[in-house]
């Protein structure tokens, strides 16, 4: 059975809720899932994963969440060549060009590890609603189809 590992950062609870939705969707697809808050893990958390997921919000003018900075910096040094990755961002479109910037930064950081992008990044405004849940399901379905 494939193993999915999800790391998230959440200030308001929106991104944590998104990570829970993704966790449930992977479980429903029959995959094993471990989901952890970013301050509880190191980048080697992904070492035994088949699918690596980061769910993050963006702070201020396109900045990484403070609690995610060390994880982000250290991730670049990991060898994830045989892994799939996916990134989900939550944010507020009032920030214009900075909307979900941290998620875009994580996509680039994952590429430096040699991991393969298994699904296109999903951007969600604030809290996930019904339409967002459908988009997250498509994201999960893409990843599952590539790991099977």
Automatic annotation (TrEMBL):
Q: Do you know which InterPro entries this protein is assigned to? A: Flav_short, Flavdoxin-like, Flavodoxin, Flavodoxin/NO_synth, Flavoprotein-like_sf
Query: What is the superkingdom listed in this entry's lineage?
Result: Bacteria
Which residue range or ranges hold the Flavodoxin-like domain? 4-144
Give a yes or no for keyword Transport in this entry: yes
**Which controlled-vocabulary keywords does the entry list?**
Electron transport, Flavoprotein, FMN, Transport
Q: Which family does it belong to?
A: Belongs to the flavodoxin family.
> Which PANTHER family does the record match to this protein?
FLAVODOXIN 1 (PTHR42809:SF1), FLAVODOXIN 2 (PTHR42809)
- What exactly does this protein do? Low-potential electron donor to a number of redox enzymes.
What is this protein's name? Flavodoxin
UniProt source species:
Vagococcus teuberi
